[in-house]
């Protein structure tokens, strides 16, 4: 049976980068008989403008009935005056929560061609390959109570609540340990257990779950130190597991180690492996509509979709190889451009990746032809 992908372009550069990712996915769908079908829906500010809510029921139903979701980005200055409950960002939080996408994988990999684009010295970053596992449906993003209230003395007070239950910590811990087992078996849990009781519980549960994974070396680090260590010596990390808000911040830091926030993809998974795939960056209002956004984070998110939800590692490998080939061809969007490279637009970058995929197909059919000829 065909597998359905819900496509939510969102706001700002969202539609521009999703269009490039769909070029790639549609080509592979035909080339590799993946049997995928696509259906679009509105989310974020675009949904608010059409329906008065950032997550309309029709979008939610589509996503619940889909096998995977591809999302661009949401938000922008146009919707900033709105009350929080209907802001574009709340649509994104609601879909993550409604689909139970508690495990957010954010790989920070430095492509060798972009060593010069990294903010760090080559010897500090070359070969960088770390995975941030961010808890995505709990913590301060969702804790109640929240709001802004009027105090008796007449001043306003803003408040949010950082809460984690043992079961929420335990499930992200298992997800992180399993991720580490498939990599270099090193897991660093990042918290603020010296100050926040909730993350003392986080640390205790991580340690307890760690007993089920004796092959994984577990360490703990405070978040302020982790931010510093990511910039000082990022290759000390293999897998990092952390809370919703700390993961949000640390992944933007890690993005710059890879050259640009436009390079970092993500997978947000539920317990069954169903997932939503999106770049970690936002709607980039400052460059929206200019055709200069980097689509590679979204294209690489599609590779994660093929690997994690559709169990198509060969198709995922092809995308990653094609992205490498595009970088080898020295084309660069503005955010990763450096002297001597060819500056390209969003769609030209997508086309270059597509050309590389086409070349792979031709090479494969030539090889098949050659081996058949030899057989004759
Ligand atoms: N997942 C999401 O949908 C998501 C993530 C982050 C921020 N946001 C929202 O996006 C809006 C803008 O937020 P922000 O400016 O803080 O963060 P942002 O990630 O949108 O942009 C930060 C900077 O990075 C640049 N940038 C981002 N993506 C890029 C790309 N693909 N190619 C080249 N440059 C890129 C932007 O031009 C900007 O200078 C806000 O409304 C915010 O809430 C949404
Ligand atoms: C837009 C916002 C809700 C979102 C988050 O904080 O999770 C974004 O920053 C991200 O990293 O996906
Ligand atoms: Mg973020």
From TrEMBL:
The record marks 141, 192 as: Important for catalysis. Residues 4-353 form the Isopropylmalate dehydrogenase-like domain. It is an enzyme of class 1 (oxidoreductase). NAD(+) binds at residues 76-89, 282-294. Signal peptide: none annotated. Pathway: Amino-acid biosynthesis; L-leucine biosynthesis; L-leucine from 3-methyl-2-oxobutanoate: step 3/4. Its EC number is 1.1.1.85. Keywords: Amino-acid biosynthesis, Branched-chain amino acid biosynthesis, Cytoplasm, Leucine biosynthesis, Magnesium, Manganese, Metal-binding, NAD, Oxidoreductase. It is found in: Cytoplasm. Its cofactor is Mn(2+); Mg(2+). Mg(2+) binds at residues 224, 248, 252. It catalyses: (2R,3S)-3-isopropylmalate + NAD(+) = 4-methyl-2-oxopentanoate + CO2 + NADH. Binds 1 Mg(2+) or Mn(2+) ion per subunit. SMART domains: Iso_dh. GO terms for molecular function: 3-isopropylmalate dehydrogenase activity. Substrate binds at residues 96, 106, 134, 224. Belongs to the isocitrate and isopropylmalate dehydrogenases family. LeuB type 1 subfamily. Homodimer. Catalyzes the oxidation of 3-carboxy-2-hydroxy-4-methylpentanoate (3-isopropylmalate) to 3-carboxy-4-methyl-2-oxopentanoate. The product decarboxylates to 4-methyl-2 oxopentanoate. This is 3-isopropylmalate dehydrogenase.
């Amino acid at each position: 049976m065909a597998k359905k992908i819900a496509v939510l372009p969102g706001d700002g550069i969202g539609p521009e980068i999703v269009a490039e990712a769909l070029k790639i996915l549609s080509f592979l769908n035909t080339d590799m008989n993946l049997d995928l079908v696509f259906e679009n829906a509105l989310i974020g500010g675009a949904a608010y403008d059409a329906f008065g809510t950032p997550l309309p029921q029709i979008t939610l139903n589509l996503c619940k009935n889909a096998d995977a979701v591809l999302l661009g980005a949401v938000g922008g200055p146009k919707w900033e005056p709105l009350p929080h409950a209907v802001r574009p960002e709340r649509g994104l939080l609601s879909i993550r929560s409604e689909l139970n996408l508690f495990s957010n994988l954010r790989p920070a990999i430095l492509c060798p061609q972009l060593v010069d684009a990294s903010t760090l010295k080559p010897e500090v970053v070359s070969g960088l390959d770390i995975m941030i596992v961010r808890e995505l449906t709990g913590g301060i993003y969702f804790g109640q109570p929240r709001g802004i209230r009027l105090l008796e003395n007449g001043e306003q007070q803003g408040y949010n609540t950082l809460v984690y239950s043992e079961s929420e910590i335990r499930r992200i811990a298992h997800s992180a340990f399993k991720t580490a087992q498939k990599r270099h078996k090193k897991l660093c849990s990042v918290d603020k257990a010296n100050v926040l009781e909730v993350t003392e519980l986080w640390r205790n549960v991580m340690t307890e779950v760690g007993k089920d994974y004796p092959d994984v070396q577990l360490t703990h680090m405070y978040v302020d130190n982790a931010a510093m260590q990511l910039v000082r010596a990022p290759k000390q990390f293999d897998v990092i597991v952390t809370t919703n808000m700390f993961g949000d911040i640390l992944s933007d830091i890690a993005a710059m180690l890879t050259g640009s926030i436009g390079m970092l993809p993500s997978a947000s998974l539920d317990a069954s492996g169903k997932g939503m795939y999106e770049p970690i960056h936002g709607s980039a209002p400052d460059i929206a509509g200019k055709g200069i956004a980097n689509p590679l984070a979204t294209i690489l998110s599609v590779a994660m979709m093929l690997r994690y939800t559709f169990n198509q590692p060969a198709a995922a490998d092809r995308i990653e190889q094609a992205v490498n080939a595009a970088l080898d061809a020295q084309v660069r969007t503005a955010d990763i451009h450096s002297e001597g490279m060819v500056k390209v637009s969003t769609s030209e970058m997508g086309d270059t990746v597509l050309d590389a995929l086409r070349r792979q197909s031709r090479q494969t059919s030539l090889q098949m032809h050659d081996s058949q000829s030899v057989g004759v």
